[in-house]
Each structure stands twice: as structure tokens, then as C-alpha cells.
Design brief:
Elements (H helix, E strand, L loop, with lengths): L1 H42 L3 H6 L1 E8 L6 E3 H13 L7 E9 L5 E10 L2 E11 L5 E10 L6 H22 L1
Keywords: Signal
Protein name: Nuclear transport factor 2 family protein
InterPro entries: NTF2-like_dom_sf (IPR032710), SnoaL-like (IPR037401)
């Protein structure tokens, strides 16, 4: 009897773990599909599809220190690029996706092949009521090799000093 109970317990535990792992894999694929479609929409200058993958309260943080946009601000900034027929072209060469315990929040980091060479993207997606994942926060950054950091700091030092002073004065 003890052997039967132990076997049933192990079977249930294994089955539950397997189902959870399978569900995580399915949701990971859905999140990855959204991100790939989002990047593809930019490359194809599909404005409506691109912004359709984001929530209305999304934030986009770009590579420039001044680029911290609300959804509406980012749409306004991006519109002229999309109107020209090509916005930007990013494709993931590596991506890691993680989920909150409740399964309704996902976060990720990705290494991107772009016209700026390698960049890093990271962000947060939220599972919507209809079952679709949407981007609520995205950060784009340049991937700079450590041996080139000093050179880059030298290039941006003057502008960063001016911006830092302005921001400190606003506090």
C-alpha cells in the first residue's frame, strides 16, 4: 500500500512539474513571437502593428540619455521614420525570457543585430485579459566592448556633463 501511495504521489508530482514546464515553454514561445513580430514591424515600417504590440502606458528608453518616452511620445517621435518606409531593423541573436510566479509578467533581455551593430534590449511584457502578451517597458542600449569604454566616455563626456548639470538643477 505504501509503495502504491508513493508511486501515485511521484506520478502526480512529476505530472504537475511536466505541465508547468510545458506551459512555461508555450508562454516563452508566445513572448518570443511577440518580440520578433515587434522588431519585424519596425523593419517593415508597419506603424500600427509595431505600436499594437505595446500597451497604452508603455515606456520606451532609447540609447540617448534624453530618450525616456511615454507611449504617446514614442509614437510621435517614431512616426516620421515609419512614414519614410523603414524605421529600424533589429533581429535577436540571443534572448532570455523569465516569468513572475503568477505567470502574468515576463521580462527578458536580448542581444540584437542592428544597423548600430550589437545592441542590448531588455524589457517587460504583461499578459493581457485576452491572452495576448504586450510590451510595457523596453530599454535599448548600445553594447560597448569593455576595452572601448574609455574611448566612448571621451566622446560623450561634454554632452553628458551638460545634461547632468541640467538634470541636477531641476531637482
Amino acid at each position: 500500500m505504501k509503495t502504491t501511495i508513493l508511486a501515485i504521489t511521484m506520478f502526480v508530482a512529476f505530472g504537475t512539474s511536466f505541465c508547468q514546464a510545458q506551459n512555461t515553454f508555450v508562454e516563452e514561445e508566445k513572448v518570443s513571437t511577440v518580440l520578433d513580430a515587434w522588431h519585424k514591424a519596425a523593419a517593415e515600417a508597419n506603424f500600427e502593428e509595431y505600436f499594437g504590440h505595446m500597451t497604452e502606458d508603455a515606456i520606451f528608453i532609447g540609447t540617448d540619455a534624453t530618450e525616456n518616452w511615454t507611449f504617446a511620445e514614442f509614437k510621435k517621435f517614431s512616426k516620421p521614420y515609419f512614414d519614410k518606409g523603414k524605421a529600424w531593423s533589429f533581429s535577436a541573436v540571443e534572448r532570455h525570457i523569465f516569468f513572475a510566479d503568477n505567470g502574468k509578467i515576463a521580462w527578458f533581455d536580448e542581444l540584437l543585430d542592428t544597423q548600430m551593430k550589437l545592441c542590448r534590449g531588455s524589457g517587460v511584457l504583461e499578459l493581457q485579459k485576452g491572452g495576448d502578451w504586450k510590451i510595457v517597458h523596453y530599454v535599448l542600449s548600445l553594447a560597448i566592448p569593455n576595452e572601448n569604454v574609455e574611448q566612448i566616455v571621451g566622446l560623450k563626456s561634454t554632452k553628458d556633463s551638460i545634461l547632468t548639470k541640467m538634470l541636477k538643477e531641476k531637482q
